[in-house]
Amino acid sequence: MAKKKVAKKKAVKKAVKKKTVAKKTSKKKVVKKKAVKKAVKKKVAKKKVAKKAVKKVVKKVVKKKTAKKKVAKKKRKVNPAFMKPMQISDALAAIVGSKPIPRTEVTKKIWVYIKKNNLQDPANKRMINSDDKLKGIFGRKKQVSMFEMTKLVNQHLS
Predict the structure, then answer these.
(1) CA pair distance 33, 29, nearest whole angstrom
(2) pTM, rounded to two decimals
(3) CA distance 68 to 87
(4) Chain centroid to CA 13: how far?
(5) How far apart are CA 134 and CA 94, in angstroms?
């Protein structure tokens, strides 16, 4: 009898263990299922947000492209009067040379001379200090602004 009771108790214990193990595993499964559902929801939400962001970026890019198409740049035509060779006076010929050249080239050569001889005022770069050669062009002025310089140089061209 005692053996039967002990065997019964063991059987009951095994059955209880199986049920608790089954409950634990089922709980684990339920917890895992919930975690998986949450993860899936997060992924779906992230995808939706990503899709919205992509749509916004695509709209912006499309808007920018259409704006660029509307603005078409035309090539600037060079005014032939600037490219016409001009006669140079003797005072200007000392700096630029005696051959007839366009106004644009005259200005470039004067700037090369100014930079080479360091005649630009260090405090105010818009002012040009004149040396002996430039005084003949600038009308004996010690200092001339850039804008006044072009006006004075044009008097020596014909």
Answers:
(1) 6
(2) 0.51
(3) 45
(4) 76
(5) 9
Tokens (6 digits) for 111: 């700037």
HEC letters along the chain: CHHHHHHHHHHHHHHHHHHHHHHHHHHHHHHHHHHHHHHHHHHHHHHHHHHHHHHHHHHHHHHHHHHHHHCCCCCCCCCCCCCCCECECHHHHHHHCCCCECHHHHHHHHHHHHHHCCCECCCCCCEEECCHHHHHHHCCCCEEEHHHHHHHHHCCEC
Name the residue among 84, 79, 82, 114 with its Cα closest to residue 96: 114
Tens digit of each residue's pLDDT, the chain (158 residues): 566 666 666 666 666 666 555 555 555 555 566 665 666 566 556 656 666 665 665 555 555 555 555 556 677 787 787 789 999 999 999 999 999 999 989 999 999 999 999 999 999 999 999 999 999 999 889 999 999 998 999 999 98
How many residues comprise the chain?
Answer: 158
